[in-house]
Automatic annotation (TrEMBL):
Source species of the chain: Hibiscus trionum (Flower of an hour)
SUPFAM superfamilies according to UniProt: L domain-like (SSF52058), P-loop containing nucleoside triphosphate hydrolases (SSF52540)
PROSITE patterns (UniProt xref): RPW8
GO-annotated biological processes: defense response
Assigned keywords, A-Z: ATP-binding, Leucine-rich repeat, Nucleotide-binding, Plant defense, Repeat
Domain of life: Eukaryota
Family: Belongs to the disease resistance NB-LRR family.
Record domain RPW8: where: 1-149
Protein name as catalogued: ADR1-like 1
Annotated InterPro entries: Apaf_helical (IPR042197), LRR_dom_sf (IPR032675), NB-ARC (IPR002182), P-loop_NTPase (IPR027417), Powdery_mildew-R_dom (IPR008808), WH-like_DNA-bd_sf (IPR036388)
GO molecular function, one term: ATP binding
Keyword Ribonucleoprotein: no
PANTHER family, sorted: PLANT BROAD-SPECTRUM MILDEW RESISTANCE PROTEIN RPW8 (PTHR36766), TIR-NBS TYPE DISEASE RESISTANCE PROTEIN-RELATED (PTHR36766:SF30)
Length: 817
């Protein structure tokens, strides 16, 4: 029996008790509460049947149980809010009523669907789930013809399952029990550690402990999971932790929060128990700055480094996998089952498993690399593994040598794309849009081929695809996905890229954030650097911090930094072939960029990504970027740059195809000159909460195929001229909660293929069927139940139309919004 089956049952029982209280006390939510009571009573016998069946659920079905447990947990939190809400707070109560109704639909959908299926499904569902996962992603590729947008990754992020550590079984349970006893059974331990080499399953174990019901109950669900990394932003981390401890989470996004020192922390008193998990800690000096001396606060530290007892009171050392566990994990990756198939060469498999030395990451990645390969390929892999000579005697380098085997089998272009992943910072999500653009520009491939390579690397466990909160249904496009990579795999990419003389490398990379450029670079500035990708990761950079460098072949420049001000590198002037520029600030506030004059010589620049910076003012004197095809501005200050009185966009961006503006909270409206950029094919204005007006002349954009206006709550109308955007194929107005209606002119969009209008709360009626029947190309509509029937009636007149109600997945992520 899996843990979460029991957990779901216990949560359901507690939720049932809360709902009875609501039914008695809250007139606003009584109807939904009574209905939920009926549903939960139906649920409990099914959970009990699962609990005592003795069947070990496959991963896919177990993950559904996990998600439903989180759904019930969210229901409990909602029930508490309902019970605590004052009866005279009408606005808040109406909001809670709507959430209760949605919770009811979520529970009912799960009971009527997946829960019953759990009782009938067999072990083959594990393989089916894997196929289904990639089918969904490939389905998203279909919408890529409409052009990608930007990821909402600064919104609610879905936590990815590592699945790289211990493969269930005894090892995980032993470690989990030992660490749990240290955390909740020992009052004398305020800092507990998990230690192990890279790829040994430390983070997986820590996440399991964080999700454990007993641990969550002990800490009253007050558990914060943070990744520190080798180049941490200490001020931001300290602010996050102190804000969490004191209950000031709303202030934790800024470094301006007051953090007391020394004894003042202890004097904070005995608040609720709190656990902070610090993953990927590399330095004792860093760790000491992240530990607070509050009586009811504990820290769980995950690291490859062993720290003195004065810092970490007690440590659990992660054990490598036993022989049987190693075999199960390897076979799962190589064959899709837990044992060697009858047709497999058992001796050969055992020899390769032995060479992996019980390291979960090596077992998983090497197993995946050998999947469906002929036996001679396996024999060759065994030979390469057995003669791997470590650079030094550390396990880390031995692991890199063994992991190299899994990369050698990749096709040349796929291998090059894998090595490119080392260009991005450790422990940061990579927006898929950024990665795809990099591959397209550097390897001369199209987006479809780039996406296929992404899927191949994912299937071989060389990267992880992570969906954001909105990507929880079958209709989201691939722009809502980001990429993460295990730090050992990133180390491998950097290790392979850094071979050879520094001036001759294809990629010039900084492995981690530093205060200055590497001295190795400075020592070799007398010769040009032949790198095609240059990646820099620093703090604040001033003009004097840069030195002269020449990059005659550079096509991609990635600038990562954490600062309030940043002087763009002068060597951009010496990058005549630069095609993609990515500027990402990881600091707490938008950075001011200086030295924008370097754009003068970027005649070949095709893609520009700006994140968390103040975009300089664009005017008639701005040097045109004549070949720029894609401009993305994420979390930026853009009001000055888009001043309509001085801005002539078609002059500055004469060939722009895609414009992305995401999470830019000072954007109020677009300059009217945007309508004269005749080349524009995709425009995404998303998560811009003050944006309230589209240009009246929108109809001039005859080539526009995609218009995304997701989560713009102040937008109240669409201009009538939208009917003149004759090439429009995809319209996304989801979560535009104040949008009043669809204009009659929408019936003129004969090329329109898809409309996403979920959570458009004000739209309760549509244009007449006679108007909408002209949408002959319309194939899919995603909407709320309020207008579902009106769209459904249109299916008779538009034969290929499929109308889908938005609630598709069993998640309560919206409760956290």
């Amino acid at each position: 029996m899996a843990f979460n089956e029991l957990f779901a049952g216990e949560i359901a029982t507690e939720l049932l008790r809360q709902l009875h209280d609501i039914s008695r006390k809250s007139c606003f939510c009584k109807s939904s509460a009574d209905s939920l009571i009926t549903r939960i009573k139906e649920l409990l016998p099914i959970v009990e049947e699962l609990k005592y069946s003795g069947v070990e659920l496959p991963a896919f079905r177990q993950s559904q149980i996990n998600r439903f447990s989180e759904t019930l947990r969210g229901g409990l939190e909602l029930a508490h809010k309902v019970l605590d809400s004052g009866r005279w707070n009408v606005y808040k109560n109406l909001q809670l009523v709507r959430k209760m109704e949605k919770l009811e639909k979520q529970v009912e959908s799960f009971i009527r669907g997946p829960m019953q299926a759990h009782l009938l499904a067999d072990v083959h569902h594990m393989r089916f789930e894997t196929m289904e996962r990639f089918n969904r992603l490939e389905e998203r590729l279909d919408s890529m013809n409409a052009g990608p947008g930007t990821s909402g990754r600064q919104g609610i992020e879905a936590e990815e399952d590592s699945n790289l550590g211990i493969f269930g079984g005894i090892g995980l349970e032993i470690g989990k029990n030992k660490v749990t006893k240290m955390l909740i059974g020992r009052d004398d331990l305020s800092v507990v550690g998990i230690w192990g080499i890279g790829g040994s399953g430390k983070t997986t174990l820590a996440k399991e402990i964080s999700r454990d019901n007993q641990v969550r109950s002990y800490f009253n669900n007050r558990i914060l999971f943070l990744t520190v990394s080798q180049s941490p932003d200490l001020e931001q981390l300290r602010a996050n932790i102190w804000g969490f401890i004191t209950g000031s989470e709303d202030m934790s996004h800024t470094t301006n929060i007051f953090v007391p020192q020394g004894k003042s922390q202890f004097e904070w008193g005995c608040g609720p128990r709190t656990l902070v998990v610090l993953d990927d800690v590399w330095s004792a000096s860093v760790l000491e700055q992240l530990i607070f001396k509050v009586p009811t606060y504990k820290t769980l530290v995950i690291s490859r480094c062993k720290f003195p007892k004065r810092v970490v009171n007690e440590v659990y050392e992660v054990e490598l996998l036993r022989e049987d566990e190693s075999m199960s994990l390897f076979c799962h990756s190589a064959f899709g089952q837990k044992s060697i198939p009858p047709t497999g060469n058992a001796t050969l498999v055992k020899q390769i498993v032995n060479e992996c030395k019980g390291l979960p990451l090596a077992l998983k990645v090497i197993g995946a690399s050998l999947q469906d390969q002929p036996e001679m390929y396996w024999i060759n892999a065994r030979k390469r593994l057995s003669r791997g000579e470590p650079i030094c005697e550390s396990h880390e380098n031995k692991l890199l040598d063994r992991m190299e085997t899994s990369v050698e089998c990749l096709k040349k272009k796929v291998k090059e794309c894998f090595l490119d992943l080392g260009s991005f910072p450790e422990d940061k999500k990579i927006p898929l849009d950024v990665l795809v653009n990099t591959w397209v520009e550097i390897h001369n491939i199209d987006e479809e081929e780039a996406f296929a390579i992404l899927m191949e690397l994912s299937e071989k466990n060389l990267l992880t695809l992570v969906k954001d909160a909105r990507a929880g249904d079958a209709f989201c496009s691939y722009y809502e996905i980001s990429v993460t990579q295990h730090d050992v795999l990133r180390d491998l990419a950097i290790h392979l890229s850094n071979q050879g003389e520094v001036n001759d490398r294809k990629r010039l990379l900084m492995p981690r954030r530093d205060t200055e450029l590497p001295r190795e670079w400075e020592k070799n500035t007398d010769q040009p650097f032949n790198a095609r990708i240059v990646s820099v990761h620093t703090g604040e950079m001033r003009e004097m911090d840069w030195f002269h460098m020449e990059f005659p072949k550079a096509e991609v420049l990635i600038l990562n930094f954490s600062a309030d001000e940043y002087f763009l590198p002068p060597f951009i002037d010496n990058m005549p072939k630069l095609r993609a520029l990515i500027v990402i600030n990881h600091g707490a506030t938008e950075a001011t960029l200086q030295n924008f004059s370097v754009f003068t010589n970027l005649a070949n620049l095709r893609s520009l990504w700006l994140e968390k910076v103040t975009v300089p003012q664009l005017s008639s004197t701005t040097v045109p970027l004549r070949n720029l095809r894609k401009l993305s501005m994420v979390l930026c200050k853009v009001s000055n740059s888009l001043d309509p009185s001085v801005l002539d966009l078609p002059q500055i961006f004469p060939r722009l195809l895609e414009l992305v503006i995401d999470h830019c909270d000072d954007l109020v409206k677009l300059p009217s000159s945007i309508c004269k950029v005749n080349s524009l094919q995709s425009m995404s204005i998303t998560n811009c909460h003050r944006f309230h007006e589209l240009p009246a002349d929108l109809g001039m954009l005859k080539k526009l195929q995609i218009l995304r206006l997701y989560a713009c709550p102040e937008l109240k109308t669409l201009p009538p001229s939208i009917g003149e955007v004759v090439g429009l194929k995809y319209l996304d107005i989801s979560q535009c909660v104040n949008l009043k209606c669809l204009p009659r002119e929408i019936g003129k969009l004969r090329s329109l293929e898809k409309i996403d209008m979920r959570d458009c709360l004000q739209i309760v009626s549509l244009p007449t069927p006679a108007v909408l029947s002209n949408l002959k190309s319309l194939g899919r509509v995603i909407c709320d139940e309020e207008v579902f029937g009106q769209w459904r009636n249109l299916e008779k007149m538009v034969p290929d139309l499929h109308v889908q109600v938005a609630e598709k997945w069993y998640s309560l992520d919206w409760l956290n919004g």
